[in-house]
Amino acid sequence: MGIIIDLDVMLARRKTSSKELAEAVGITPQNLSILKTGKAKAIRFTTLDAICKHLDCQPGDILRYETDELTESE
């Protein structure tokens, strides 16, 4: 998959727990876990907006693209 989710990195940088973020954003911890592990198939802009507001970051701080060659060789 070419889209990599670096939500764990931002949570660590902001010293915020997943539980706190889930409560602030209004999603379940299970859905946040799916997002963190890269198993999510989509994310609503409203959810991304809420995450970025809470973590004071840009969408590019959470999401990045890598070609399949890079992800397969890791």
Major β-sheet annotation: 2 strands, antiparallel
Which residues sit in consecutive blocks of at least 5 with pLDDT less than 50?
Answer: none
Q: Radius of gyration from the CA trace?
A: 12 Å
Secondary structure: number of strands: 2
The proportion of residues forming helix, as a percent range, comes to 55-70%
Please work out how many helical segments DSSP would assign. Answer: 6
- Shape verdict: globular
Element-by-element helix/strand order: EHHHHHEH
Sheet/helix structural class: mainly alpha
Strand order of the largest sheet: 1-2
Span of the ends, CA to CA: 12 Å
Q: DSSP strand (E) fraction?
A: 5-15%
The mean pLDDT is: 91
Protein name: Transcriptional regulator
Organism: Pseudodesulfovibrio nedwellii
Domain HTH cro/C1-type: 19-62
Word description of this protein:
It comes from Pseudodesulfovibrio nedwellii. This is Transcriptional regulator. Residues 19-62 form the HTH cro/C1-type domain. It contains six helices and two strands. It starts with a strand and ends with a helix. The model has no long low-confidence stretch (mean pLDDT 91). The radius of gyration is 12 Å and the shape is globular. The protein has helices spanning 7-14, 18-25, 29-36, 45-55, 59-62, 68-73, and strands at residues 3-5, 63-65. It is mainly alpha-helical and 74 residues long.
